[in-house]
Please model this.
Amino acid sequence: MSTFEIHRATKRRAKLRLGMSGPAGSGKTYSALLIASGLGGRIGMIDTEHGSGDLYADLLPDGYDVLSLTPPYTPARYIEAIHALEEAGVSTIIVDSLTHAWSGEGGSLDRQGKIADKSGNSWQAWRQVTPEHNALVETLLQSPCHIIATMRAKTEYVQEKDERTGKQVVRKIGLAPIMRDGIEYEFTTFFELDVQHMAFVGKDRTQLFDGQIFRPEMETGRQLLGWLNAGIDEPQVKRNAMPEEQKTELIDSIYRAESVDELFQAFSLAYRTANALPDPEALAELTRVKDARKILLEVHNEAAYGVAA
Model:
């Protein structure tokens, strides 16, 4: 007898997963804030752009909160920042910018290069780095908050023949996000912004904007919210206490962490486990253990190297 469950396709209420890419000056931060305001509720921004998150403090009537994220931009530190805003009670998290987790100092490319240089094995380095990056993507997808992630974009050009003049001309063919290939497919909707602040929607599961070119605004967020709420509620999840043996194992894994990166990999697993039950009491205890271990690791690093973790 089959152990698979088959159910009738039913649209359920969901949380937004919106990705936006664009070159410098395309208005990614500005557009993200307007859309987040249209979604309603409290907004929290993870700012990796050296204080740009505070530049629009007067843009929204109710304001927004900013969490400044500085190097190293490891996926683990992004995960910690996302969890911090979730625990602070925000409704929408803007990650500005997600690109640093890929190509910034301490990001996946940087870590892969350093590991490969040390080991001499590029493939082995990717085997270590890829799960860390996947954990960040999973955190974005599983968050109980709406997620808007901005990404820097690179401009691609091709040479082609101008039919009117017969001369070779250079034409811009599109903007690719500076992230792991295929990242746009992780999102519900993906906007590509140009320097005129216009959005082209190349991928849109909502079908609200598919193939359109428009300027993002608060109404964009309201339209997305209407689509997200046009479904049945998720079944109520019964709260289950985490078994003591399982909680002890998770606490032990946190205590065994020998670096800040290892710590947040261990805590990410603990967070997902407690959140899936859900067991808020266990999550609070695991968070306290993580915070205590982080302090010890930072003190150790300062003593050994004269720098914080």
Observations:
- The first helix runs from residue 28 to 39.
- Residues 305-309 have pLDDT under 50 and may be disordered.
